[in-house]
Design a protein that fits this description.
The protein is mainly alpha-helical. It has eight helices and six strands. The longest helix is centred in the C-terminal third of the chain and has 16 residues. The chain is flat, with a radius of gyration of 19 Å.
Length: about 170
């Protein structure tokens, strides 16, 4: 999916719900939200949630959640890298909208290139990651959005991004 996916969490995200939050590109949670993978409590290791969890938070912290079944607060989830932002429940929609507008203000093509690179390079060694990054940078630099962005910077004006057709 070339566009960022934002999780909006207002309450309990457990097992597959926690997996969905971890799988999203970005996440905003209400301060009352909690997160857990407690299948272990009934003899079921949360195998599929473990995949995105270990890719979004330190391994030992993910393992602790998976093996103990203990829940963490929204603030703990932010500290561990599971969510980006935590706000009071009554500010949740506004914060998601703020993040969405920040993303929408960027050129769609550059965001899509960046997202694709982000996930591809994570699964390779450092040398291959830099090679992928170089290829992406080269493609990005000759793209119309980069040319407009650089020219706008030189002209000391706000960029006028080309309108892309929805993907």
């Amino acid at each position: 999916l070339p566009v960022p996916v934002i999780a909006r969490v207002q309450g309990l995200a457990t097992a597959a719900g926690c997996q969905l939050v971890a799988q999203c590109d970005l996440a905003v949670a209400a301060s009352q939200a909690s997160f857990g993978v407690n299948g272990i409590d009934v003899g079921l290791f949360c195998a599929t949630p473990s995949v995105p969890l270990v890719r979004n938070m330190p391994a030992k912290q993910a393992m602790e959640m998976l093996l103990t079944g203990e829940f963490i607060t929204a603030d703990e989830a932010r500290a561990r890298g599971l969510v980006n932002r935590v706000v009071p429940l009554d500010a949740l929609d506004a914060e998601v909208e703020k993040l969405l507008q920040a993303l929408l203000s960027k050129p769609r093509e550059a965001v899509a290139m960046g997202k694709e690179l982000f996930y591809k390079q994570r699964e390779t060694g450092v040398e291959a990651a830099y090679q992928l990054a170089g290829q992406t940078m080269a493609c990005n630099m000759v793209h119309a959005v980069a040319q407009e962005g650089v020219q706008a910077f030189i002209d000391k004006r706000k960029p006028q991004w080309p309108v892309a057709a929805p993907s």
